[in-house]
Amino acid sequence: MIEIKLSQGAKRGHGGVLPVRKNTVQIVKIRGVLPNTTILSPPSHSAFKDIKGLIPFIAKLRQLSNGKLIGFKLCIGNTREFKMIC
């Protein structure tokens, strides 16, 4: 299964920081970042900008992964955000 993380409750809309000690060789290869550095993650995805763009992105991931299941994780703050996903 492939999981897309859209947001998290603790810091919604703020991105994240991966400290140097967690920047492993595997992370360097997967994310294409420099080793031994702190990595700043943007608060949004560069592959799509809204919910309408998420659907084609999921379809592309499914095709590229030979049909693996695709899930997404997010934090919903209000009813309007929930309805946008539905």
TrEMBL record:
Molecular function terms from GO: glutamate synthase activity
| Pfam families on file | Glu_synthase
Species in which this protein is naturally found: Flavobacterium xueshanense
* UniProt-listed InterPro entries: Aldolase_TIM, Glu_synthdom
Q: Which family does it belong to?
A: Belongs to the glutamate synthase family.
Q: Which segments constitute the Glutamate synthase domain?
A: 2-79
Q: Which SUPFAM superfamilies does the protein's record reference?
A: FMN-linked oxidoreductases
The alphabetized list of GO BP terms reads: glutamate biosynthetic process
The protein's name is Glutamate synthase conserved region-containing protein
The domain of life is Bacteria
Identify the PANTHER family for this entry.
ARCHAEAL-TYPE GLUTAMATE SYNTHASE [NADPH]
